[in-house]
Design brief:
Layout (H helix, E strand, L loop, with lengths): L2 H21 L18 E2 L5 H8 L3 H7 E6 L2 E6 L16 H9 L8 H4 L5 E6 L2 E7 L14 E2 L2
Antiparallel strand pairs: 1-2, 2-3, 3-6, 4-5
């Protein structure tokens, strides 16, 4: 076979191989969960924006910019930040500097606002004299330490 014919033959083989690669069906992307590196809240990946938007009845822009996803084993959860909704870890401490400061300024207050305690606290706070007191828990914490009611399972 002449060198010209060999080049032509090689070009045809390469073209056919490239065409076969394009025609091959794509493999499905790996599922987001389970993946240990996705156990902490992360920005919503583009392919999950629609699921988050539907679960929280929000627009895709809000889902993209104000929401998070994380895995709990094989289960995918989503959270969207709101006025009093946090997606970070729950604050289960029974002593808070902000609550203590509030009670010093407002002795015997029956209620300490979230602006003093922080929005991640799970307790109902009040003042006994100048001492901050953590009352009953107002919300449940999931096994990973997040406020359970702020996270929805995404199916």
């Amino acid at each position: 076979m002449s060198p010209h014919r060999m080049k032509l033959f090689a070009s045809i083989v390469l073209a056919l191989a490239a065409g076969a690669a394009v025609a091959r069906p794509a493999h499905a992307a790996q599922p987001y969960c389970p993946n240990p590196s996705h156990a902490r809240p992360a920005n919503v990946p583009p392919d999950l924006v629609g699921k988050v938007a539907a679960a929280f009845h929000i627009g895709t822009a809000e889902a993209r910019h104000n929401s998070f996803v994380r895995c709990a084993g094989a289960t995918l959860f989503g959270c969207t930040v709101g006025a009093n909704l946090v997606c970070g870890k729950a604050d289960t401490r029974r002593r808070l500097k902000g609550a203590t400061a509030w009670c010093r300024a407002h002795p015997n207050a029956k209620f300490i606002p979230l602006s003093a305690t922080g929005h991640a606290t799970i307790y109902n706070w009040s003042c006994k004299g100048r001492q901050a007191v953590a009352g009953k828990a107002l919300t449940a914490v999931d096994h990973q330490g997040y406020i359970a009611g702020n996270w929805k399972e995404l199916r």
